[in-house]
Write a structure and sequence with these properties.
By secondary structure, the protein is an alpha/beta fold. The protein is built from nine helices and seven strands, in the order H-H-E-H-E-H-E-E-H-E-H-H-E-H-H-E. It has a seven-stranded mixed sheet with strand order 3-2-1-4-5-7-6, sandwiched between helices. The model has no long low-confidence stretch (mean pLDDT 97). The chain binds S-adenosylmethionine. S-adenosylmethionine (SAM) binds next to helix 3 and strand 2.
Length: 234
Amino acid sequence: MKDAFFTVHSGLPREAPGDADSLAWALDVAQTPVRARILDAGCGPGADLALLRAKRPAARLEGLDLHAPFIDRIRAEQPEVKAEVGDMLVLDGSYDLIWSAGAAYGPGVTAALAAWRPHLAQGGVVAFSDCLWRTGRPAAAARAFWDRDYPGMMDLPGHIARIEGAGYRILGARWLGAAAWEAYYGPLSERMAALRPGADAELTEVLDATQAEIELWRTHGGDYGYYLSVVRPV
Ligand SMILES: C[S@@+](CC[C@H](N)C(=O)[O-])C[C@H]1O[C@@H](n2cnc3c(N)ncnc32)[C@H](O)[C@@H]1O
């Protein structure tokens, strides 16, 4: 099943919702300097590293991810980036910006914020997105999916409380829009359509589950969303 999952998810531009518009907004809110040291923690296949490079060409960019094939791909496609396999909770650099799109939920947002704090340079900022409930009464199908995929997913007041509890102040925050979801689900849908003919039982199961996830967003996507927060230690 793991092999089938990576078959579906290999070669995609990104592995979570996100877009150039929201990333540019975060850089503005963070006032990220021209020659910033920037880490993309949980960088996946590197779409945001490319966007960061376009917005801050003189920056020193690093990408970190547990999944070695993503890092191999970044090394091949973006040689300007220092890409390493590693755990985002175990850093050794100092950064003006730690960017993390849809990845901090892996080790846990609170653990990530605590681990990143000592690795922020003077005035350094964290910009990260996390999936949150947008309603206290989500559709049953949405509740069932996210309880399985992200148990303990928070609502906005809980999210703000954990950021502040970790010793950070929120400089700015916004929900990602439909374009950010399409940037993820669009290429994923195309890949699934290409894989469907001739798929074996295991692959078909992953394709069906992924299709259901996309349909869930199209039907009940208003019940949840990715919230991008730009935060600085108090
Ligand atoms: C949902 S994907 C998002 C990837 C990327 N940020 C993007 O938007 O395309 C989450 C990524 O976080 C990585 N990840 C999860 N836990 C991690 C950890 N503790 N350290 C480093 N990477 C981690 C996963 O391997 C995966 O590539």
